[in-house]
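Holo prediction — magnesium ion.
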Amino acid sequence: MTSTVRTLPVMVSPDQAAERKDDGFQRIQGANVLLAIHNPNNLALLREQLSSNFQIYENPSDIDNIEFDLAIIDIPSLEQYKDALQDKKSRCEPTLLPVMLMISKRDLKHKLRPYLALVDEFITMPIDKVEFMERVVMLLRARFLAISQRDKLYYLATHDRVTGLPNEQRCIEHLTDTILAASVLNQPVYVVVFSISLDQVFKSFGHSGLDQAAVICSQRAVRAVTDNDRLFRLTTDTWCLVTPPGHHSLTHTLSVCQQMIHTISAPVNIEHDLIHIDIAIGVSHYPDDAVNTRQLLDAAINAIEHTEANVPHFYSRRLQKDALRYIRTETLLRQAITKEQFELWYQPQIDFATGEVKSVEALVRWRLPNGNLVSPGDFIPIAEKTGLITQIDRWVIIQACETMARWKEQALGIERVAVNVTACDVEEDDFVSFIDDILKKNQIPPPNLELEITEGVFFHSKSQNLEKLSHLRQRGINIAVDDFGTGYSSLSYLHTLPISILKIDRSFINSILTSENDVAITKSIIWLAKTFQLQTIAEGVENADQANYLKKLGVHIAQGFYYAKPMPENQFVEWLQNQKSAEHIKQRQSQIS
Ligand code: C2E
Ligand code: MG
Ligand code: MG
């Protein structure tokens, strides 16, 4: 999980502190002024006075879409904008949107009265320039003071006095906005409420100890969340975290919860005493548990009641089941890594031109202590989410290269071993040197290794990833796009990637004899591969008809259950030797040629 260390907001935000210092003076410079004056001479005079310090809007046709801080206006314009001005002023309340009327001494007596409610200040013509500027500055100062005071009050009303975190009111506002966005995007939202046991701190150290502990726990919580999560302090001992809407947010929420448990539950030092802290976490889900803000929050608070030690409790039973599975798998995966419970199996790839097996794909398997095998589909996604995948894949690459070295000694005729790598693997700083070292250590030429990468890695990852892959490709290592055709790639982009192989996804091969669309897609993939001089591998070939057809279309290599399933190394070697002696593959080849 990526977490960013951030400091807690202070009681008065930096903006507010700056405003306190200058009492709104700094903001006067550059303020927006509406100048609506019919008389050209007066207009020119006022423009000259104001233009060096302010942004001026001159006699606009309407003022609805203009944001200004002061209106300087004459009677005809006032008549024209009366309703719009009234509307803007009332929308600004409780702050002030000042209106200054320019009026002749003659009109002062008879014409001012109807506009008194709208006008905050007036100035008579001919204009005394000094007096005019003084009044402009005074009005703007009054406006910015009112704004800064409103902001301060809002800040005080929406933030916790002790920790500076946004409070329950702000949480409800934010959650309401988040739910609205999630309903439009049709995405889930997770609300995490956690309660921290501070009773003991209060009993021993009173209010000051309680405040200290609250600040420490809040700082720890801020460290545990990511930049997109929002954290609030609801009451003395409860906090709330709202994760951003998104389809992958269960795993994100779980990893944040675990991070939170890990960081917060360390003892806190209050007045040189180490106090143990317990944290209980409840989680609710929009829209499954509730569709309204208060009910969603209450559901998470309710769920806290059922928490077991160090495991977040979900309000919904279904999610609780998924969450427990995720947490258990993660714990077991960590053990699996230290206890080396992984095995590497090999699936042969058949060269259509010769019928020979020259390459294999290495696929990881996880054997539980009770002997059961877990297939990659059940643990790779969790390993990816938790970052454990890099350790697993490094183990796979080491094993695959050692196996390749053994096979070379045995002269089995296997020339290439493919391993699957993910974006996390490539992102590791030493990914390129790690691969270089392994090849060197096992004395394997780079073309003997193939890295299989799914399309998403090319299109959604950082540019450094592409650079690293280019380096590896330049050294002669093969790079394949795995599951090609299912991802996001624009085909025209393909020639810019550092790749040598396209693996056509199983889903197309599956329906190649029945779906015209899939035939069309497969043909264009093959055409494209030929154009860019890439090798093509068809994955998931399950019968002779598919193999026959793919060979005719010009695919180079086939991999699939029709030939063999993935096997442990010793079985694979046995299988290969049997094939060679019985010339089994060649027979099959003759069936389809
Ligand atoms: P993949 O890389 O596309 O691997 C091919 C998958 O298709 C393998 O599933 C293989 O057993 C299966 N397969 C091959 N031929 C056929 C066929 O004819 N019919 C059918 N129905 N399936 C066939 P497996 O071993 O369960 O692996 C699933 C996925 O898990 C792999 O898809 C790969 O994305 C991932 N994976 C496997 N091993 C590793 C690994 O070491 N590291 C990483 N990062 N991912 C791995
Ligand atoms: Mg693969
Ligand atoms: Mg694949």
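READOUT: The pocket of magnesium ion (ligand 2) is lined by residues 361, 420, 452, 482 (CB under 6 Å).
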